[in-house]
Design brief:
eight-stranded mixed β-sheet; alpha+beta; globular; two-stranded antiparallel sheet
């Protein structure tokens, strides 16, 4: 059984990342349309889509190609990294995030660069002897206080809060959530956006997070 199928077949073991009323049923699965190339355009689009759908938050974006990354030096210029490898959950700064599956803190750091993750937590998990990792990005700085490698968080336990625009890399408040099979030597960070030429590798290493929630 490959990693993706292992996750999918054990989805009953996982819980959603937010608490009521921010359930999946009250969220809108949004796709960024072509032409969104600035942060202000992105913020306006997300807000309008949530209102139009009559929902209270939005989520989505796995393997979505995003023009907004092409204009940031962090993502390269010759072949920009434009393919999004996790899901984004668009909701208010300060929203609490909860652990979807028992695990321990593996590493954390404040990736304090323009358009970066900002405060980031990566947790380590074991499912049927398969080790894997979860990345939580764009958190509040307070979320990193009192953390330590190996600290246990049980399923459903609060692990972090979402950060503001000023502390999350300059993005509209949201959670970047990503499943990672192999961290490939990274600590406190892992690519959340890939080049098209590298997509086969990252698709295998970072399956769609929604397979553990649907």
């Amino acid at each position: 059984m490959n990693f993706r199928e292992l996750l999918k077949s054990n989805k009953a073991e996982f819980t959603w990342l937010l608490k009521a009323p921010l359930t999946i049923e009250n969220g809108y699965k949004v796709s960024l349309k072509p032409g969104i190339s600035s942060i202000s355009d992105l913020s306006d689009f997300i807000e309008k889509e949530i209102t139009r759908a009559g929902k209270i938050f939005a989520f989505g974006g796995y393997l979505e190609e995003r023009e907004v990354y092409s204009n940031a030096s962090l993502f390269g210029s010759i072949e920009p990294r434009t393919i999004h490898l996790g899901i984004d959950i668009w909701c208010d700064a300060g929203t609490s995030i909860y652990m979807p599956y028992d695990g321990r803190i593996h590493c954390f750091q404040d990736n304090n660069n323009s358009r970066d993750y900002g405060p980031t937590i990566i947790t380590r998990h074991i499912l049927n002897e398969q080790v894997f990792f979860l990345l939580f990005g764009h958190l509040s700085r307070d979320s990193l206080v009192n953390l330590g490698k190996g600290k246990l968080f049980k399923r459903g336990e609060k692990i972090a809060d979402l950060g503001t625009f000023e502390e999350n890399g300059g993005w509209p408040p949201h959670l970047h959530f990503q499943i990672i099979k192999d961290l490939e030597g990274y600590l406190g960070d892992y690519p959340g956006v890939a080049k098209k030429s590298e997509l086969d590798h990252y698709r295998d290493n970072c399956p769609d997070p929604m397979i553990i929630f649907n």
